[in-house]
Design brief:
By secondary structure, the protein is α+β, with helices and mostly antiparallel strands. It contains 4 helices and 6 strands. It is globular and about 40 Å long. GO terms for molecular function: 4-alpha-hydroxytetrahydrobiopterin dehydratase activity.
Length: 163
């Protein structure tokens, strides 16, 4: 029996507002995002017809990242991009993560995301199934995990140490 992770919001977030913004994004409510097992991140895979469309989508997302001064953990193989939104400092899921996840959904639609028929009834991936679900055919989530582990303290303000 799998349990759905509870969101773990970053310090300073308004839990009621964050819950309201999170709900429509989750697969349980018809969205396409899932919480990671710790509840500190939202994850989703995006697929397009071609690499060029995928790259255009990633470029549009990167422009939003620049505007919001926030970045995802992501990986790409050919026409598929895996995106994880989380906040590293303070650790957890922030309202900015939720806002950018919503932006990604809008941009994916605008760039012609290919939505498989099986996604009409999406399922929450159980934590114990990690590595066997969607996005894992090319190891995209695992790739993002490995890169994040070696990225250093990308989100810690200058002059402060991560705790």
């Amino acid at each position: 029996m799998s349990t759905t992770p509870r969101p773990n919001f970053s310090a300073g977030s308004d839990p009621a507002a964050a819950e309201a913004a999170l709900a429509p994004l989750l697969t349980a409510n018809g969205g396409r995002w899932t919480l990671n097992p710790s509840g500190e991140a939202l994850e989703r895979e995006f697929k397009f017809k071609t690499f060029a469309k995928t790259w255009d989508f990633m470029t549009a997302v990167s422009l939003q990242c620049k505007l919001k001064n926030h970045h995802p953990e992501w990986s790409n193989v050919f026409n598929t991009t895996f995106i994880r939104w989380t906040t590293h400092h303070p650790k957890g899921l922030s309202t900015l993560d939720l806002e950018l996840a919503t932006t990604c959904d809008r941009l994916a639609h605008d760039f012609g995301e290919v939505v498989p028929p099986s996604d009409s009834q999406p399922q929450q991936q159980a934590p114990e199934a990690k590595g066997t679900g969607k996005g894992e055919a090319c190891g995209l989530a695992g790739l993002a995990d490995r890169v994040v582990g070696g990225a250093g303290d990308c989100c810690v303000p200058k002059g402060k140490k991560a705790t």
